[in-house]
Design goal:
14% helix, globular, Ubiquitin-like (UB roll), alpha+beta, two-stranded antiparallel ribbon
Length: 105
């Protein structure tokens, strides 16, 4: 496996790690991370929606776009500046879902 370390589930290699912020954990049984198959960000969100009912509606609009207040990072790269929901993810990638933070007066 070289220098990369992969998490294992039921004896298999986990393709993509998704980091879930506290605000969304009430929809993921308080799971802070989830392991999913590679593909695209959109497919990843579909997988999470299948696993965690109600989750998908928290991150996508009715039109199927990312909510404005949800930021997605793939290996610290903002998916908005890549291919958005069509951004490819693969084995060993780390995807972070982060809520936007607004502030000021």
């Amino acid at each position: 496996m070289g220098d990369r370390s992969f998490s294992c589930i039921k004896g298999g290699i986990v393709a993509v790690e998704v980091r879930i912020p506290t605000v969304f954990r009430k929809f993921t049984n308080n799971d802070a991370t989830a392991s999913v198959d590679g593909g695209t960000i959109g497919e990843l969100i579909d997988q999470l929606g299948d696993r965690y009912p109600g989750f998908k509606e928290q991150v996508l609009t009715e039109g199927g776009e990312l909510h404005r207040y949800v930021n997605v990072y793939v290996n610290d790269e903002d998916a908005r500046y890549l291919d958005k929901l069509d951004t490819k993810v693969s084995e060993g990638d780390v995807v972070s879902l982060l809520p936007s933070v607004a502030g000021g007066r």
